[in-house]
């Protein structure tokens, strides 16, 4: 009678049994329950930790926000997560690894925010000290020059305008001739949604790079007034611009010259808050290319 065939699992040397048994077909390895990562513990932040946020001019076209952390007397701090906490915005999170030595400078993208009062910024920080366990602390954050708060105010104004009307920009076109006889035009069509009856558009404002020409829907002359009410049809406003100055340095150093403020009047929008005209990167590039064409450089 032939002998019983030995089990492949039992033939494994004891020292390697646990590791190799998992690799052999038909062998059931030991069941190991996954260990959940330990959640960071909440604690008070280092007493000398100072936090601030800002949006510099070079980031004004987008939504990049700078986060500055400093703790001169605290050593061995490694930051792994930062979240901007505010009643006006959610989901503004940075993750990575940055040593606070004694300064950490981070950037994150701020999601669109909503309307409301004082944003009351705080930072929720996850960090380790000297390679120890992770801690979570919440610290007040100063909006250094008010730029992040103004960004949220523009978000609020833009959401009110979007609730009242759809905004569609047409095709940029050069009219009137060549060089200093030319004007760059952009049609902007507003179609009321019927959801609001209390929003008025008063036109556009100039930028540091481009000034409005005659015939533009400028807010400065007070002649533009479009009520986006129920039952009203589409209205097309024409933005007509020329360079504010024919100075190559102005173009070379420009950061915000294609950000055209829209003057919007509505309940809940402060008189000095302006959402920007939404433009594509291609439109912004065309606006900048028009400057040397007009100035004949």
Furnish the topology, listing elements before pairings.
Layout: H1 17-21, E1 41-42, E2 50-54, E3 64-70, E4 77-86, E5 89-100, E6 103-109, E7 122-129, E8 134-140, E9 142-143, H2 147-164, E10 165-169, E11 173-175, E12 183-192, E13 200-204, E14 210-212, E15 226-227, E16 235-243, H3 248-252, E17 262-265, H4 281-295
Parallel strand pairs: 1-8, 2-9
Antiparallel strand pairs: 2-3, 3-6, 4-5, 4-7, 7-8, 10-12, 11-12, 12-16, 13-15, 13-17, 14-16
Protein name: Lipoprotein
Signal peptide: 1-28
Keywords: Signal
Q: Domains counted in the coordinates: how many?
A: 2
Give the radius of gyration.
29 Å
What integer is the average pLDDT? 89
Return the string of H and E elements: HEEEEEEEEEHEEEEEEEHEH
Give the oligomeric state of the chains in this entry, treating copies of one chain as homo and distinct chains as hetero: single chain
Task: Point out poorly predicted stretches.
Answer: 1-30
How many angstroms does the end-to-end distance come to? Answer: 102 Å
Structural class of the helix and strand makeup?
Answer: alpha+beta
Strand content: 25-35%
Helix content: 10-25%
Order of strands in the sheet with the most strands?
A: 1-8-7-4-5
Number of strands: 17
Please outline the major beta sheet. Answer: 5 strands, mixed
The number of helical segments is: 4
User: What global shape is seen?
Assistant: elongated
Protein name: Lipoprotein
Keywords: Signal
Signal peptide: 1-28
């Amino acid at each position: 009678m032939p002998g019983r065939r030995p089990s492949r699992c039992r033939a494994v040397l004891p020292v390697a049994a646990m590791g190799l048994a998992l690799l052999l077909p038909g062998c059931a390895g030991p069941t190991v329950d996954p260990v959940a990562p330990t959640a960071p513990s909440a604690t008070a932040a280092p007493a000398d930790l100072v936090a601030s946020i800002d949006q510099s001019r070079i980031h004004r076209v987008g939504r990049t926000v700078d986060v500055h952390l400093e703790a001169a007397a605290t050593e061995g701090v490694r930051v792994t997560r930062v979240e901007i906490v505010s009643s006006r915005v959610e989901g503004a999170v940075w993750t990575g690894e940055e040593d606070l030595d004694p300064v950490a400078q981070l950037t994150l993208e701020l999601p669109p925010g909503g309307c409301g009062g004082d944003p009351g910024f705080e930072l929720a920080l996850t960090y380790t000290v000297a390679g120890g366990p992770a801690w979570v602390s919440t610290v007040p954050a100063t909006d250094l020059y008010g730029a992040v708060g103004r960004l949220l105010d523009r978000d609020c104004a833009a959401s009110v305008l979007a609730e009242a009307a759809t905004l569609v920009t047409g095709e940029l076109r050069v009219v009137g001739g060549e060089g200093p006889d030319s004007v760059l035009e952009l049609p902007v069509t507003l179609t009321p949604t019927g959801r609001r009856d209390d929003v008025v558009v008063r036109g556009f404002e100039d930028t540091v790079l481009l000034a409005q020409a005659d015939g533009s829907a400028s807010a400065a002359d007070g002649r533009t007034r479009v009520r986006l009410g129920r039952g009203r049809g589409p209205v097309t406003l024409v933005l007509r611009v020329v360079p504010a100055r024919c100075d190559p340095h102005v173009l070379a150093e420009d950061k915000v010259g294609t950000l055209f403020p829209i003057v919007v009047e509505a309940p809940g929008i402060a008189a000095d808050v302006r959402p920007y005209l939404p433009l594509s990167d291609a439109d912004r590039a065309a606006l900048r290319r028009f400057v040397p064409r007009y100035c004949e450089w």
